[in-house]
Design goal:
The protein is an alpha/beta fold. It folds into two domains: about 150 residues, HAD superfamily/HAD-like (Rossmann fold), CATH 3.40.50; about 70 residues, DNA polymerase, domain 1. About 45% of the residues lie in helices and about 10% in strands. It is built from nine helices and six strands; from the N terminus they run βαααααβαβαβαβαβ. Strands 3-2-1-4-5-6 form a six-stranded parallel beta sheet. Helix 8 links the parallel strand 4 and strand 5. It is globular.
């Protein structure tokens, strides 16, 4: 448990962590695969959906590439359908922040802790989410998986957030000065690999407490808003 003076930035995941997912990722994924000729309810679709759940938090184009057996063109087409479908769900009001999240962002910033959000989604979806949930004035940085070399569980997005912080504030903080918060094993693994001081799992999303601890969580919270109790 780190004192406030040690933590300079909190880096949050989006779907399942700061915003309700409620199956939207799977819905958009299955819609994308149907557009590619797959059939809902078949063993093959079920197998793919299970893989999507198991790899939740990872970069979506990587997931599609795996499921398309390395066929880059087919994966890219499926990913485009996914992006279109997920944005449609967000625009339809299907994505909402967890209660108190904006207040948490403001409270952290009032205490001198910068707020960053990262996601396995590409920038098109992340920008749409930020606009729809009216987060732009409540966060300091955002990084999408499409903007780094490797998605989770690699730590690239965390390091990108740290780089943005150091450039804006002319400082030299490291991963030991940040908290990473997410709902998936890949969130935890990226935080551990980066060397984050706090790697906090939340039980509001995809993976359970045991999975989060096994993936390296230093803490598992009921929700992201409880971060304030440990930092």
């Amino acid at each position: 448990m780190a004192p406030v003076s040690r933590i300079k930035m909190a880096i949050f995941d989006v779907a399942g962590t700061t915003a309700h997912d409620d199956g939207l990722v799977l819905e958009a994924f299955e819609g994308a695969m149907v557009s590619m000729g797959m059939v809902r309810g078949t063993p093959e679709m079920d197998r793919m959906s299970d893989y999507v759940v198991a790899t939740m938090g990872e970069r979506k184009i990587d997931v599609f590439t795996h499921l398309c057996d390395g066929d880059v063109a087919r994966a890219s087409a499926a990913h485009d359908h996914f992006v279109e479908g997920y944005i449609g769900l967000v625009n339809a009001g299907r994505l909402e922040e967890f209660s108190g999240v904006t207040d948490l962002f403001n409270q952290l910033r009032d205490q001198g802790i910068a707020v960053a959000i990262t996601t396995g989604f590409p920038r098109e979806i992340l920008s749409n989410v930020i606009e729809t949930l009216d987060w732009a004035s409540h966060i300091d940085f955002s990084v999408a998986a499409s903007e780094v070399t490797a998605g989770r569980p690699a730590p690239d997005m965390i390091f990108r957030c740290i780089d943005l912080y150091n450039k804006r504030f002319d400082t030299d903080i490291s991963a030991d000065d940040v908290a990473v918060i997410g709902d998936t094993e890949s969130d935890m693994k990226s935080g551990v690999t980066a060397g984050a001081q706090i790697v906090a799992g939340v039980s509001t999303g995809t993976h359970n407490s045991e999975q989060l601890f096994n993936a390296g969580a230093t803490d598992v919270l009921k929700g992201a808003v409880d971060l304030i109790t440990i930092c």
